[in-house]
Amino acid sequence: MKPILMQFDTDALPSSFDRVVAVDAGVEQLFSYGNVNGENVTGLVHGAIFTRGPADLKHTAIFIGGSNVLEGERLLNKVTKTFFGPMRVSVMMDSNGCNTTAAAAVAIAKKHMKLEGASAIVLGATGPVGQRVSELLALEKAEVTLVSRTLDRAESTRDAIRARFPDARINRSSASTPEETEAACSGHQLVFAAGAAGICFLTEGSLARIEGLKLAVDLNAVPPVGIADISPMDKATDKSGVICYGALGVGGLKMKVHKQAIRSLFANNDQVLETQPIYELALQVAGL
Predict the structure, then answer these.
(1) pTM to 2 decimals?
(2) Do 4-97+254-285 and 101-250 fold alike per CATH?
(3) Cα dist. 106→45, 103, 135 in Å?
(4) Integer Cα distance of 189 and 187 in angstroms
(5) Domain limits of the chain?
(6) CATH no., domain 4-97+254-285
(7) CB neighbours of 147 closer than 8 A, spacing ≥ 6?
(8) 235 - beta bridge partners?
(9) pLDDT value of position 221
(10) Of the ranges 112-116, 166-170, 260-264, which one carries the lowest mean pLDDT score?
């Protein structure tokens, strides 16, 4: 029986990136649908779960993607609520690469230092990737500071993470200029830049001036990058005593995790791969 991956994309055109990765992961049959939403997804899910017997449903899986992460989360919720009893298939949500990117970034940090008790700061922490990086750092028992341009947004993200991890050690801060951001980073061992394309949080020379900094990860590959001292190609590059990773330096592990996650969907029919399960997979792929 041939494995089938159904791609549910919230955008009008299903992502070509996600299609290529699925094929490279070994998917033989890829059914791609665009403009999928909570109103029209039920019939698609029924088509996935009613065409094969329960014992064969592990050969069908669903991938949820698209550029809108919030819509992807809503779609995941609708899909999983449509399942019942043994009538279900494994599903993965990685809208805009949010989960695989965050998982790879934190796994890379763990390769270089102990995260439990470490002081980390996340710039652009209220965005889809930043929130997930912050959540995973909290899961690893790091002390995390969330930075946003407005304190209200940082507090909202902090409260959302604490709702899932009541013991999380999370602070919040606001910064609207590179000077304010650099000051907020002082004394932190790790900095993650996870903002939207085109936002430079830290200007050239900042890394050398941040006291106590050991590792910096910039997840933006589009100029201007999020941390001016870091090139997208940097991979464990030492700059002023700081280990640096750029977006493409993280991308190698992110791609391996993405492909392995897709392959793993066909091991059984009851997996839901989102932030934490994908992070666990990233740790395995990274050999941790």
Answers:
(1) 0.94
(2) yes
(3) 33, 5, 10
(4) 7
(5) 4-97+254-285, 101-250
(6) 3.40.50.10280
(7) 121, 122, 123, 124, 125, 154, 172, 173, 174, 175, 181, 184
(8) 245
(9) 87
(10) 166-170
